[in-house]
Amino acid sequence: MTSWNTRVGNQGSSFYEPAWSTQMNNLNIGGSDNSAGAVRQYYWTINFTDYGKQNFNTAVDDSGEIYIDGVYQFDSGGFNSWTAKQTPGYFAPGSYTISMTSRNTGSGPWGLAAEWVSYTPPPAPSISSFYADPNPQNSGVDGTPAYNTTFHWSSTSIGPITSCKILNNVSDITLPNTTGGNYPVSNLPQSTAGSNSPASRVYTLEICNNGGCSTSQITVDARNDNTPSTTWTTLFDDLEPGLPTVRLMGTMAGVDMTVKVSSSNNNVTFANGANSSFSNPQYFTNGQAVYIQSTSADFNTDVSGLPAGSELGKVNDKTIPVTIGSLSAFDVTYRTRKPVIKEVFDYPNQIDNYPFPDIDDDPNNTPLEFTVTDQETLDDIEIPMEIKTNNPDVQIQINNGNWLYLREI
Question: What are the structural domains of the chain?
Answer without folding.
Answer: 4-120 (2.60.120.260), 126-222 (2.60.40.10), 235-336 (2.60.40)
